[in-house]
């Protein structure tokens, strides 16, 4: 059986429709809910509606939204209507009550108007008074504000006025303090006021003004301080002289400077100047000035320095100020150390020079002790070292130009006092003491030059004759002045005669004066007795050997001295030589050194006086011979004289008389000198006589002339035989005439045979006759004979024999000469 085919069941469109309807319903509900939400936002939003409206227009449901909006409006209208219906009766009642209140309000308003009018009328005076009170309150408030502002501003203005006053009175440091208070304390209180800014802008300028003004005062101080440095230095050196037991007059200047006590410096912190005291204080100041008790602070107002230092310290420029101050003071030190070109002309110039330098360092020492760091010891030492080198160079140059010993002595005293003064302030003065040792030699040279004039003056004023005294006082004066002791002279009666002339005690006194002058320079040099003694002995040796020795040498060489004066000079040298031991004792007594010290230098005066005496003796010999030559020059022989005059020539007689009187003055000369002088004179006479015979200008000599010559020689031999000087042995002086005596005897005795036979023998009678002298005299004698003979005389046998004999003798004598020459 065929299967029954079940027909397909048609789809359930009802269910599908229901589903679609449900979806449509859900969508509609969603749209409605969305629209409700938007309407709620529109209703409740207090802000802009742009977002909500944009959401409405962006969709496709605008119409539906309008429908929903209409529905909401209708619902709200129904709700309003319902509520109005619910509250209508109450509303009516309220209206009725309101009408009643309106009547009461109108009545009340009228009453209030009446009251107001009455009140306005009654309060009008009160309002007027009130307005006046408000105005007064406003004025009072303004006054209080003005008083408050003035209370703040007045101290500022007062401080500014005080600042200006301090600036005008040059109280710069207090002004700076006032400026600091004004800037940091007072101006901050008035910052709201316009003038505070002006003052703030003026403060840096005021500081610069204070700095410039204080620096200007400092410059004035530095310029004026040089006017007071000399006075300060003079006072400091005077005090140092009193402390070191020196004469204060060394430091005092003859040119008194008018000094005035400086005003008391203002207090550096308050700027106040203390008032001067009473009249008594003025009198006390005057007395202190007269006594030289003023100090650096009394003479100089140092407040500009202190003020400027404090100001620059407060302003932070202390280092700049210290640099400037030291630089300026260095310049002033160089100016003080620059000596005047004519300083060597007056001791006052030296005093002024030293006063300036001492005053400079006293001021600097005062600055060192009264300030902290403005100057320090290192700066002072550096400045001092520079000053010492320049000072020493200046003193060397100026002292080298000094020509007077007294001025050199004053300079030395000033240097010593200068050293004492600055040593008291802590400065080292060793280099200056060494300079004094250098100046000591220069001082000795100046003394030496002065003593040259002294010695020459003594020599010029001396009469070169022994000293005669006629009283005990005169005798005592001489022996006190010169150490001379002679018992025989003491026993003699007055008048007495000293062996030496006046220049012996004068020279001795001046040498002692020189020693004392040298000792003066050694004072206050802190040298030992031995050093002083050695220095004086060296200087005295130079005086004796160089100065006095040179003066004596020049004296002895003077051409105007007579023979007797030279003899007296030689005698004087003998006594001055003996006085040297007394000079050594004198030096030891004044220096305090031991006279028997091994290392002590001895005076060289003994050897110098010996040399001078020897020089004088040589000049005595020379002068004596010169005088003899003067007598010899008076000789006028007639060499053709036929026979002698029977007596000695006049010049010989005068010469012998001169020699006798001269040798009588030799009694005080050493015996050796007298004997030497006598022997020298005799030899010179003998030589001069021999020269007469041997003179080449004399061509002819007659026997008569030889006989006259023989008489003159006899006169001289007689003088020699009398021993005019004690101590000469018999026959000693005759030996001086032996040569000419044998020559004359040979011719007068005509002993040619003996002469020729004994020639060369030690026992020869005519051993001193030289063949050449004999030839010369014989030829002159032969020439005379040849001139006298004539034609008839040539025929005489005797004349021919004599002529032949002379020729023979001449031939033999020439043979002897040639033989001697050949030997």
TrEMBL record:
Residues 432-780 form the Exocyst complex subunit EXOC6/Sec15 C-terminal domain. One of its GO terms (biological process) is vesicle tethering involved in exocytosis. Residues 69-237 form the Exocyst complex component EXOC6/Sec15 N-terminal domain. GO terms for cellular component: exocyst; membrane. Keywords: Coiled coil, Exocytosis, Transport. Residues 254-273 are annotated as: Disordered. Pfam families: EXOC6_Sec15_N, Sec15_C. The keyword Calcium does not apply. Belongs to the SEC15 family. Component of the exocyst complex involved in the docking of exocytic vesicles with fusion sites on the plasma membrane. This is Exocyst complex component.
